[in-house]
Amino acid sequence: MKKFVGIRFKPVGKIYDFDSGAFVLNPGNHVIVETQQGLGFGVVVNPPATYEAGSRGKPLKKVFRLASEKDFEQLKKNSEIEKKAHTYCLKCIKELGLKMNLFSVENTFDASKLTFYFTADGRVDFRQLVKMLVKELTARIEMRQVGIRNHAKMCGGVGRCGRLICCSSFMENFGPVSIRMAKEQGLSLNPTKISGQCGRLMCCLTFENDTYHELKKGYPKVGKVVMTKNGKGKVIRHNSLQDRIAVQLMDGPEIEVGIKEISTEVQKE
After folding, report:
1. In the beta sheet, which residues pair with residue 237?
2. Which of 123, 219, 246, 255 has its CA 20 to 30 A from that of 9?
3. What angle do CA 205, 207, 211 make, to 5 degrees?
4. Please, which residues have CB within 8 angstroms of residue 219's CB and are 6 or more apart in sequence?
């Protein structure tokens, strides 16, 4: 039986499995691993687990060694290179008049390749920009255009709830978010109130959607005519957290009643 561990390269990035070999590793250990782009610096997040050889399809890449002081010094040097590259690239973008928003630069652990992340409204011809960067930085250059949600994830920030935005604090992948979820939860449909820093619908709308959907099972739909102890009325909204609904009486005011107070006989208009 072999052992593998889950390793993450970015604070809230995807977790990758690596063969731990003879190393005794624990969550929090910093390690150097073999990747497709050479050696990489990562941190163990999942404890060792066993697996049978050949059971995972392709062989897992291995943990090369534990990180040393020199490796941490290399990270500092890489950070300085990233800052220099970011400043120089912004200068070049301005000179070339390119319509792109550069927001991050990442260096590989061995400093052989620099990846420039940017957003733009459309396609950008950055061939001349790449030539200028290669000449100045003497490294392989990759320009990567990403979406606005990935932009927010990489840059981070504080949401309207006062906490770090979900995508940059614990979310590994983005899921689909729809306006139907806001309606299901009875939220205001004002875009400024249900949109995150990226300008898209807040990811947290998905967290409680299943719960609201479960709570509302058996509820009459909004617009349905129901019978209450005060007479016939039309359902105008749900208050699933308190197990109540608001009803507009046909010949009276709006009232709020418990779901159990509604007559089992539901009449059509």
Report:
1. 246
2. 123
3. 105
4. 238, 240, 245, 259
Q: List the one residue out of 204, 105, 206, 202 whose CA is nearest residue 149.
A: 202
Asked whether residue 77 carries a pLDDT value surpassing 90, the answer given is: yes
**Among 158, 159, 198, 161, residue whose Cα is nearest residue 177:** 198
By CB atoms closer than 10 A (0-12, 13-18, 19+), residue 139 is: middle
Say if 190 falls within a structural domain. yes
User: Of 146, 175, 199, at which residue does a domain stop?
Assistant: 146
Per-residue CA distances from 164 to 40, 103, 138, 197, 256 (Å):
27, 19, 36, 11, 36
Please state, in angstroms and rounded to a whole number, the distance separating the CA atoms of residues 263 and 232. Answer: 10
CA neighbor of 67 nearest in space, from 12, 25, 19, 17: 25
Give the chain's domain count. Answer: 4
CA distance 204 to 174: 11
Residues 83 and 61 in one domain: no
pTM of the predicted model, to two decimals?
0.75
Whether residue 199 is found in the same domain as residue 232: no
Nearest to 196 by CA among 236, 155, 246, 225: 155
**Residues 172-196: pLDDT tens digits?**
888 899 999 998 888 888 988 899 9
CA distance 258 to 228: 10
Classify burial at 96, counting beta carbons within 10 Å of its beta carbon; exposed 0-12, middle 13-18, buried 19 or more: middle
**Cα–Cα–Cα angle for 63, 67, 71, rounded to 5 degrees:** 125
